Amino acid sequence: MKTPFFPGLSKSTIGGIRRTVQARLAAEADSFERHTLLDLSRLFKPWIDRHLLEPTNAGENSRRRVFSLNNTFWTFLSQVLLPDASCREVVKKVQAWSLAKGLKEPSSYTGAYCQARRRLPLEVLEKMFTHIRDRMEVRHSEERWFGRSVKVVDATGVSMPDTPSNQKVWPQSRGQKAGCGFPVAKIVGLFGLGNGGLLDWAEGNQHTHEVSLFRRLWHLLSRGDILLADRGYCSFATLAGLAELGVDSVMRLHIRRPVDFRKGKKLGPKDRLIQWSRPVQRSTGWGKREWNRLPRTFAVRIVRYTIDTPGYRTREVDLVTTLTDPVQYPAEKLAELYFKRWAVELFFRDMKTTLGMDVLRCKSPELIRKEIVMHSIAYNLIRALMHDAAKLYDQAISRISFQGALSQVRQWSDLMRNHLRKAGVKIHDVFLRRLVDDPNPDRPDRVEPRAKKRRPKNYQLLNKPRHEMEITGHRNRPERKYRK
């Protein structure tokens, strides 16, 4: 029996070709899995766009190498997930993995891996981050407040090696002596309050105001969203500009803007509707045309509430918000919502302290930016696993420890690789179950001061460039001698 368009081909022949093509595609997918280093691919497989890691047709990422584009990504991710992992340590890990799998063992020289990281395109990492973020939004819907999505923004700083190229892009504070400080990058991050996922970030130096960096992230806010922020973001331009986009704000009132509760329309006790006027002087980062598009006057609601929880510093808090309906949004509910803003501090703690992004390792701006992206990818991947576990076993995401999830990823990755084929999805389900087996204690209003009990060793501070300073004697009572 012949086909009408290709008389020389029978149905059985066409079926054989189809099966051959399917087998070839399956073999290519299996090869992708087999040649992925460090046993992390299966654990994070649902979240990774593997097409971004395929070799290019031409160029520096087209050659067959031990540290291919695919293997370099997973090795880099493993380095971020390991505690204080140097390039030497992660290369040793790759050697051990290769020896156990019967693959070609790479050299102990770290230059090949460092060169591979330079070849890893920043655009690929940014696309991978966007893919993971979008997958999280699809699979894990946010917890809503009065049916509306809440996002939270804040800024932080990360340190890095003191190299001339890093100092040029991220200069240290002007108050520090030359050769005694470190470059610091300022990062403004936008998070989803419900799922804790990082939506995106804007990076600048210490001389760039965080409000200007935040404006680069406005495109991630949708009409109907609510933004939580501290007093540093409270300004007429920010509140009015976000309102033009259909985004409401809940912020702490700026300390330089006093409030008189005898003025304005009374909405309740210590609850007033007040008209703000557009400042005469244009805010930094705003063009003349877009500044003139802002309204001349703008109605905001100011709510004052008292904190009577023992251990908290502030007794009275003034909130400013564009949620002006006191019936739909009661003052006590606004206070409860703003109390949740503290979660962004915990999100940054997970990234900087737990994942080690507080002090970056790379010595060039290009690699520093890649390191920031990799930490963001790792953070969202851990968050995605936490949400899978919370959804599957009906546990609150706030009760799952980020540190515990990271520790489990480090210890279970080898088991996932070796036994997932035999056990199907059972190993993965057990992995998620273990995430919720040891929940964080539910301790509302617990006081956690930012203080350390353990004292550091009392070494002297380096207040001269290293090559100019020499200290002799006991470290408690040194006799300083400076080279001339």
Strand content: 5-15%
How would the global form be characterised? globular
> Radius of gyration, Cα only, in angstroms?
27 Å
Number of helices: 14
Low-confidence stretches: 1-6, 25-35
Q: Largest sheet, order of strands side by side?
A: 3-2-1-4-5-9-8-7-6
From N to C, what is the helix and strand string? HHHHHEHEEHEHEEEHEEHHHHHEE
Distance between the termini: 97 Å
Estimate percent helicity: 25-40%
Question: How many strands, what sense, and barrel or not for the largest sheet?
Answer: 9 strands, mixed
Task: Report the strand count.
Answer: 11
Determine the structural class based on helices, strands and strand pairing. alpha+beta
Mean pLDDT: 84
Characterization of the model:
It is a single chain. With 484 residues, the protein is α+β, with helices and mostly antiparallel strands. It is built from 14 helices and 11 strands. Strands 3-2-1-4-5-9-8-7-6 form a 9-stranded mixed sheet, with helices on both faces. A two-stranded antiparallel sheet has the order 10-11. Helix 13 (402-423) packs antiparallel against helix 14. The protein is globular and about 75 Å long.
Labels describing this entry:
single chain; alpha+beta; two-stranded antiparallel ribbon; globular; 14 helices; nine-stranded mixed β-sheet; 484 residues
Give the topology, please.
Elements: H1 11-34, H2 69-81, H3 87-101, H4 111-119, H5 122-139, E1 150-159, H6 164-169, E2 184-192, E3 198-205, H7 210-214, E4 226-229, H8 236-244, E5 248-252, E6 265-268, E7 271-277, H9 288-293, E8 297-306, E9 316-321, H10 331-339, H11 343-354, H12 365-392, H13 402-423, H14 426-437, E10 469-472, E11 479-482
Parallel strand pairs: 1-4, 4-5
Antiparallel strand pairs: 1-2, 2-3, 5-9, 6-7, 7-8, 8-9, 10-11
